[in-house]
Amino acid sequence: MSDILCRWLNVEVRLSKTVDPRSISKDFANGYLIGEVLHKYQLQGDFDLFLKSNTANSKLNNFTLMEPTLQLLGVSLDLSMAQAVMREQHGAATRLLYQLFILLQKKRKAGLTGTAMEAMQPAATACLHRVENDIYSERLRTVVKREADLKLQKIALRYEIKGREIYDKSVMAHFVEEQRRQKVQEEMRLQDIEKHRHARRKQHEIMTRIQTAIIQIPKPPPNRTLKAMEKQQQNRKKQEAQKVHMEIAQFEKIRKKLSPAGGFGTSSLSEAPRSYGSQLQRPEELAQANSEYIQKIRQRLEEDATARQQREKRRRRVLVEQMKAHETQEEALREEQLVERLTRQSQLERRLAVQLMQLRQQKDVLRQNRVFRERQYQEQRLRDFQEALEREAALARQASLDHAEETRKEIEVHDRIATERAQARYRKHSDSCREILEQIVDLATKAGEYRLLTGNLIPGKLMREWKELMFCGKPLYDSGSLEELPADPTPEQFIEVEKQEILNNQDYDEYMSMTGEWTWPEDGETKPPPSNNNILGHVVLRLQTIVNPPKPDTLPPFFPRFTLKACVLGKLFSGKTTCLTRIAKVHHIHILSANVLIQEALDAHQLGKLGRESTESCETLPTKDIDQVETDTEMEEESSQDSGPLAQEPQQQGAKKKTKLSVRAQHGAAVEKFLRKGRSVPDELLVDIAVEAIRAIPADSGWILDGFPVDLTQAKLLEKALGGSDTGKERKNKRSNLSVDSNAPKEPPPPSPVLDLALLLDVSDDHVLDRAAKQAYEEERSGPAGSGEESCAPAREHNVVIARDKSLGKRQIQHRITAFQDTWPKLEKWFSGKQSILMRLNAEMSEDMLFRKVESILYQVMMQSEKGEVVVLDSGKAPAVSTALVQVTPVAVPAPTESTLTQEGLTPAVKCSSSKSNSRSPKGSQSNIEKSTSEGKDVHRGAVGRSRTLSIASSYENSHGGNTSPTEPLAPTPGTAHWVYVDEPLPKEIPEYLVPYWENVCNSYVTNVKAVMQNLRTERILIIHHLFNIREEFKQYLRRPDLKQEFVSQWQQNYNSIPKDMRDDEETKAELHQRLDDLRERLWDICDKRKEEAGQERAAIMCDGWLEDHTAVLINHFSTLMQVEVDRFQDSLRLLRDYYTGMYKQVLSEAGPEFTCIPLLDIVALEEPGTQTDKSKSSERVTKSAGKRDSEGDEKKKTKVVPLIPRRPPSTEVASMKQKGFQDPDEKLLHDIYQTALTAINNMVSVEALQREAEENEEAQQQMDRQRLQRMSQASASAAAAANSGKDKKKAGTKKKGPPSPAQEPSPPPAPEEDSEEVCKRAIRNKIRQEYAAALDHEDSAVKVRVELVKACALCMVRVLHRQAEQAFRTMEEWLGARFLSEMNSIDQLAEVVRHHIESAAKLQSELMLVCTDFFLNGDMRVVVSPPNPPRPAPLELPTDSTLTILQLEAFYRQLRKVAPTGVQCSTDFWEILQEITSLNMGTNALPDPWMHISESQLVELVSTLTQNTEMLDWRQFLLSAALPWPTPTLPQLLQVLARFKMADAGATGSLTEEQYLKVELWFPSERALSIPEDLSEPLPYDRLANLRKFFFLLFADPNCSPARIDYVTMLLYFAAHPDPMQGFVRALSVVMGQPLRHHSSSRLLKSVPYMEEGLSESTELEEEVETQGGPRGEEGVSIPALLRAICHGGAWEACHNRFHPNWKSPDEYKEDFVKVYRELGYKVEDKIPFSILSQHPVIQDLIEGSAQYQLIDIHRALQVQQSEGEPLSLMVS
């Protein structure tokens, strides 16, 4: 529409400005272009008066000028429309232009000019338009404000806002000052409370110390009896009583001498002996009486002293008065004497005296003037001072306001940052929850999907995999393909790789632990998982230790003993530095701040620079590096310590001082280097500076780190620097290590934390901002002095240079708070979780209270640390350093080797003792370590049990069965905890070759096992999907379409084409039965053929070879796993063989040519040429050569094709398998593969055994040869000895004859030195063979268990696959049989239905449907044409009693409107019309029976009732009464409907169209839920209320308007009628006023009428309802126009004037009467009088009582009464 208007305005009208659819509202807002359009059409003659600007005055002028022209055209430019166009509301200008476009087009077609249109307009209408134009102009001026008013309003608004801001600032300043004062008072009160509490606590502590310091002296044991002790106590009490009595008597004597009154003393003295005599036996009562007596004495003495003082005061007062009187008398006497002397002086003296008096007076005047001037000066100074104070106060207030504004902005920034952090946390939490929920949904959908695939039998393995992926946070569904992984994979492919790795690790762990899927089958024998091979673990660990010797453990750094080691952390302005400064002053604890240490390092660097510059000219020696200087100073310190501590003490102190200065200067240089580059100080350098400062702290003192560390990195570095332990080391993954040494050294326990306490001073962010703002405010107030002090103070943060710009510090507050919030969670986890030293303290308190709290916490920590040290010393444990030394010492003992034995020439026992002695010497052990490391020998001895040396002799004796006592324990077996391993030296090449070889073996084993597991998972999923797919495909195959329905449809068509007379013939029926049998036979043939085809399809699926192929693939996977186990066994065998052979042989034996290969099934032999599946890739396997590895690794790997075996054995082998008990050839293949692997393992073990036996035989043969040579040498030696002895005998006999000496046996020759060496070597070789055999046996049993488990699991999985396939094929067969039976049953059902129709000779109306296995009659499809249903009759209203129908009412309305269009008719004419309608001869019998049988007298009475003593009658009121019954509205309902009408009347015209009227809800519902009859022949129920609603519009609408409009106020005045006319008038007046009015009738006549009582009660109820709904509110007054509108309602009042009726007057007469009434009541004519006052006037009461036009007459009740009275008359006449 906008385009059409723009085209019209730009092309046809050609306005001065081009109109754009987007700016049409803005262009026409001022009305200038609208006036131009009217001017173009020659309608606006005064267009030159239009203004083009956009001001308010221009708009007012333009719209005022154009309104008459638009009114002439018929455009309703009311106030709301004009205001909408001025305000540029969307669509307002477009609607106005569209109306103009339509009307101007009509004007152009009619050819009318503006003058002609004005001439054609009636005079009355033109006058009315002028009046409306004046009213419009006035209202428009009130609505649209002038430009000056708008400007004035803006200026007033601006000043009002400024005044409000000034007032808010003043109020806020006062409020802030009051809050500050209250806060200061509260803080002072808390400080006082805390002081009192602290004083009480100190007093309590002093009392506690006193109590603890009291020495309890034990009483000596009793030496006497109890009776003697009691007598002694009684005597002592008697002596004391006598002594007191004597003292009292002495006191009474002295008092009697001093005081004249002696009555008291006498009585007391007389009473004392009696009391003493009577209470001598009761010491408690005697003591009480004595105390009372003494108290009385003291009281009397006090009274006497008080009286004496009073008497002394009175005496002194009298004396003073006497002295004053005497002085007064003397003064008067002196004055008299002076006067007498003055009167005696001469005239000259009098003149001089007068002059002197004048001079004195002048001086007094001068003095007074000077004092007055000084007073003026003082007041001026005071005024200036007060003005200065006020000026300073104003400046302070302004500064405080500025400070408050800055604080508010800081808080806003902080709140925004906090909100962003909270939103970030919420988003993170929401993302986590969403991910978890998505994973749960994925798990549920995955489970549902696999329930469909597996028939509600989900494998447990799949559930475990899904749970593992869910716990790891990985998606369950595949997001990327891993078939061809590119060089740059996508994130989805990375996720898939991670998922596969997780599942591979899970499967590998289950395989190694034999759990989950790799458990033993239930029907077989269950074996535990193979245990760890300790021998192999020891071998691997020793080889790794030789190749990569472990670094010796570094001792923790040495620090002196400190009483306190703590750090205090917290946010900025949390009070850390202030509190710690006070603690340092009070308790002399060293506070280490990072910024202070950095500043000191920089100062030291600067001093070092100056020192070097001053000494460079004097020094001639070359300068050294700082590190070299430090090392030299350390060496000098060590040498000085060795030479003597007393002599070198000065040198040590100087060297230490020089070292500290040099280190600090070095740190300062590094800091300056980083700061000059604009970077922060590194954490490592900060920690070094802090540690160096800690070293400088003296022993037995404490230190606290202020605000350090600030993040987790600094905390870890500090822990490492002070404790020597690196917490960042990661533990190695043990999954790739196939064998572990059980005796390997365990990891040391985590060290204790180096800090005793980490204290957090916790404050809120708002508190930090408040403190920062207060400090900034105080600094501003303090002036330059405070700024100078601040510039000298060090900075508070560690990695920021001293901030001299205060604005920079203010800007950094938010960032530093945010940085603390980012780094604190990790620090909190570190200090509270791992070290458990964190303590929190709320620092939102005063400085004194915070100081006391921190002081108490530090004191508790110091006490706990001291107690912990005492416990350690009492328990007898050594310190940590000594423990570390003890643990390092035994490991460092070197191993005994063959070379050492031969070089030292000692026996094994001597060697063992020497090794033990060396183990006690740390220096010797360290030298042995260095020596063995340099020679390339073994330095690691394993666990604690294997750290001692090898006792060769004992092991040899035990192995050869030497002399052993029966009490000795059995020898330990290899691999146990008590077994001592053989650790002989190895050549250097063997460990360097075997360590990477074993790592490659472990990695290959793990990788191959995981690859097999991944292939098995893929195969399992493929099997599940394939079985589900073949079932679904077969199901769809069974549901394929056929031709049965076509045959049935053709047969039905032929059957229905037979005429009806022929269908009754018997022969025709027989023929039809025969045709039906033929049809059934044909349908059966189709079913048989489909069954045969489905069976063939099932057989094809079963014989497609898929099951055999995937069974072979599974067997190949398990065969690959067996190959992996065999390869691992062979690799372990070679490792052990090379290791143990290398101990006693210099040259290793050559390895076999290749590894053992287990055959695979040939799965590609039967496939078509040219096709290759992914499963065929496993037919080849790369095998590694077992030869020696070259040092450079350039030798290529040898590959060999794995042997293949046929998948399907020949028929002869099948028969032999059945004889052996194998029902399935796949089981036979698995068994053969298992036997192949087992045979290969046994062959390798047997080969090793044969080699070991050959070596033993060779050694035995060599030993026998050596023994034979030894015996031969012994025999020759004995013969030579015998010959020598015979010669000696001969010589002795010749020299001396005597008795013969006994014959001396020849002593055996000494054993050669080689015998001990051979024995030792032989013992070592035997032990090596024993260890090797044990390790080989363990590996043999382990690999056999693994291979057997693989075979068992393979058999189980193959059987499960066959069982699932058989189940799927069986299910397909069941589906096939069930479908065939269902089709046959449906054919039989069809035959029965058709036979029934044949016998009954009826047509088949509905279509016969034979769909798949179902037979049914399609009711929607009619084969025979059926007749259409008759249309439903229109709803009809039936007359009931005397009630007229809506059609009768409309007929009445048309007739009466034709006769009397004005709505008022003479009563005679109306009576004639009723008589014509109700007469049987002239009427159309269109009225109910009670109307048709009415008599003339009854008609006359009815008309008189309606006219009510008037000549004219309102026929609308008659039709309204005739339409009864309709819901009678209450007064609130009438007012609600009036409000709805006014809301619908947007233009406030007072009338509505029919469309608007029907949209408004009346007091009764417009629509009701009516029951619709199911029978189509019955009409719909008639809705009388909806049609009554339309009839009411027809009755009260003005038909002359186009379209017809209804005056809704007039309509509601008709409905305000009531059986009580007074209530009807009140209701009508309420409708006119728009609010409820209340009136209580006091007429006695109304109370006498019976049915009027009902009306009164009803009106009372209505009034109560109005009160309950409206509630108590102020009553609005009634104006004269409202009274006239209510009184003059109805056409009968205006058309008839009865001079005999007192109330029938004209409106002017009524107005005169109302004016008189208003004046009588004291109101003006234009005022409004409350109805409660107005209704009390007699004139108004007469009007209310005589208002008959608001009386609702029930015609139907009158007809019933008349008929009941007329029936007896008719009977009597007859």
Task: Please write out the topology.
Blueprint: H1 2-13, H2 24-27, H3 32-40, H4 56-73, H5 79-86, H6 92-110, H7 114-120, H8 123-143, H9 147-213, H10 226-258, H11 263-278, H12 283-343, H13 347-454, H14 460-471, H15 491-513, H16 534-547, E1 562-570, H17 576-587, E2 590-593, H18 594-615, H19 626-643, H20 649-676, H21 683-695, E3 701-706, H22 712-723, E4 757-762, H23 765-782, H24 784-792, H25 806-834, E5 838-842, H26 847-875, H27 880-888, H28 898-904, H29 908-919, H30 922-934, H31 952-959, H32 989-1038, H33 1044-1056, H34 1060-1063, H35 1066-1102, H36 1106-1144, E6 1160-1161, E7 1204-1205, H37 1211-1220, H38 1225-1295, H39 1314-1400, E8 1406-1411, E9 1414-1422, H40 1446-1459, E10 1464-1466, H41 1467-1478, H42 1489-1492, H43 1496-1507, E11 1512-1514, H44 1515-1522, H45 1531-1544, E12 1551-1553, H46 1554-1559, H47 1584-1596, E13 1597-1598, E14 1605-1607, H48 1608-1615, H49 1621-1633, H50 1644-1648, H51 1650-1670, E15 1677-1678, H52 1680-1687, H53 1691-1695, H54 1707-1720, E16 1729-1730, H55 1731-1734, H56 1738-1745, H57 1755-1773
Number of helices: 57
Average pLDDT works out at 74
Note the beta-strand portion: under 5%
Instruction: Give the number of DSSP strands.
Output: 16
Kindly state the percentage of residues in helix: 55-70%
Major beta-sheet overview: 5 strands, parallel
Provide the spatial order of strands within the biggest beta sheet.
Answer: 2-3-1-4-5
Low-confidence stretches: 260-281, 616-660, 784-805, 869-968, 1165-1200, 1289-1313, 1642-1674, 1697-1702, 1766-1774
Estimated structural class: mainly alpha
Radius of gyration: 64 Å
Instruction: Write down the overall geometry.
Output: flat
What is the oligomeric state here? single chain
* Termini gap: 79 Å
